[in-house]
Amino acid sequence: QVQLIESGGGLVQAGGSLRLSCAASGLAFSSYNVAWFRQAPGKEREFVAAVTWSGRSTMYADSVKGRFTISRDNAKSTAYLQIDSLKPEDTALYYCARDHRPARVPLTSARSEYTNWGQGTQVTVSS
To answer: Above 80 in pLDDT, residue 99?
Structure first.
């Protein structure tokens, strides 16, 4: 059974930092691109960042460029999202997912291309 489990969320003040983790099991983790999405109350789930199977290439939403860093450790079957300079508008439930297509495909921000969504980890930023 494929599982992706997010952790690392919490309540932080604006300007603070968090490191989110996404631990995968039940699949050949290094064979797939991985992404982070987020969903704020009353809003659509939106793309945040993605990383290729190798970790060599990344993609970010314009709203998080320069503040968020996505990475992965294939030996640990884990992806990470380092979030710095947090803003109140970053408050959301953060999800990770893997691209349903096999490796060596271009990164995409399209939600429809991702599967095996985790339960999410809550990030709350106070002003």
So the answer is: yes
